Amino acid sequence: MTAELLGALRAPVHRFVLGEAEITSILDGAIPMGISPPFLLNENDDEISAIARAANLPTDRLENNFVPVLVNTGDELVLIDTGCGHYRRANGAGFLRDRLSEAGYTPEDVDIVALTHVHPDHIGGLWEDGALAFPNAQLMIGRREFDAWKSGDDIPSQREQNREMFLEIVAPLEDRFRFLEDGDRIATGITAEAAFGHSAGHMMFRVESASKQALIWADVANHYVFSVEHPDSMVGFDDDKDMAIATRNRVLSETADSGVLVVGHHMPFPAVGFVERVGERYRWVPATYQLRL
Ligand SMILES: [Zn+2]
After folding, report:
1. Å from CA of 34 to ligand 1 middle
2. From the CA of 81, how far away is ligand 1's center (Å)?
3. Rg of the Cα trace of the chain?
4. Is the dihedral of CA 289, 20, 216, 100 positive or negative?
5. Cα(85)–Cα(77) distance, rounded to whole angstroms?
6. What is the pLDDT, as a whole number, of residue 244?
7. How many angstroms separate the alpha carbon of residue 256 from the centre of ligand 1?
8. What percent of the chain has pLDDT above 70?
9. pLDDT at residue 125 above 90?
10. Cα of 293 to ligand 1 centre, how many Å?
11. What pLDDT is stored for residue 186 in this prediction?
């Protein structure tokens, strides 16, 4: 008897050990979308097709995946971003909370929820069925990010719906947030770092444990080829495009020079890798067994 065809299968959780800490990537989901916009806004159609073909990728579509990260420092369980929540569940994303159990955690176990920024794929999972999705967690967010979205002053017009979402699900929690500045320590070995541009107050988080280090760069670069290999090309997702390009170049240069391990919210799942310098450019190199030996 021939076994039944079961379709594609991929594990939605992945964990590695970093010093005395553990970092778990959880696939909140993946959604297909067009390439340009949002990416490669400086390139024409022929150039975009050539870039995609050279990377063995389709020339007309990409898969955007969403990867919130849990850091167990040994002292605290810290969730960085909350995924899309119910907003995109019909479209294939928003499964972070369901998949926690596959990683061995419950929503109640999360001690800290730190938001890198307030775009929908990072805040959508804050609430579930009208209650806080991680009920015991201390909430944290960059001061500049919260203030910008609250005032609305530097929010581009295409983010109007996003601002409504912020006002509806984040702003009412103001009293529960701890507000972060560049360099603030948020938990054992975890530091917040300013990486403004993708959004007004976008933050990254650096994890250090027993002389090992990882940089959770959130949305500094949003595609492993179209963004990492072409950091100067404007991206529709970036709210301040020039500042985002400057930040992307700064962080890519630093990560390539230092060889630090990177975890990126939109890098291909499990979203763990390194940045390599190739001439004047950069390349995303997925991590393999160096995390286990
Ligand atoms: Zn994002």
Report:
1. 15
2. 9
3. 18
4. positive
5. 20
6. 98
7. 22
8. 100
9. yes
10. 31
11. 98
**Position 168, amino acid:** E
CA of 31 to the centre of ligand 1 (A): 12
What pLDDT digit, counting tens, does each position of 64-89 carry?
999 999 999 999 999 999 999 999 99
d(CA 168, CA 259): 40
Q: Whole-angstrom Cα distance, residue 255 to residue 131?
A: 38
Structure tokens at 111: 């001690």
The pLDDT assigned to 228 comes to 98
CA of 132 to the centre of ligand 1 (A): 21
Terminal-to-terminal C-alpha distance of the chain: 41
Residues linked to residue 291 through DSSP beta bridges, in sequence order? none
The tens digit of pLDDT for each residue in 155-208 reads: 999 999 999 999 999 999 999 999 999 999 999 999 999 999 999 999 999 999
Q: Which helix (H) or strand (E) holds 149?
A: helix 143-151
Three-state SS sequence of 103-147? HCCCHHHCCEEEECCCCHHHHCCCEECCEECCCCCEEEEEHHHHH
Give the mean pLDDT of the chain: 97
Contact residues for 16 (Cβ-Cβ < 8 A; gap 6+): 22, 23, 272, 287, 291, 292
**For ligand 1, a single-atom ion, which residues have Cβ within 5 Å?**
121, 219
- Choose among 21, 73, 18: nearest CA to 260: 18
Order of strands across the sheet with 281-286? 185-187, 190-194, 203-209, 212-218, 261-264, 272-278, 281-286
Domains of the chain in sequence order: 13-291 (3.60.15.10)
Whether 280 shows a pLDDT value over 90: the answer reads: no
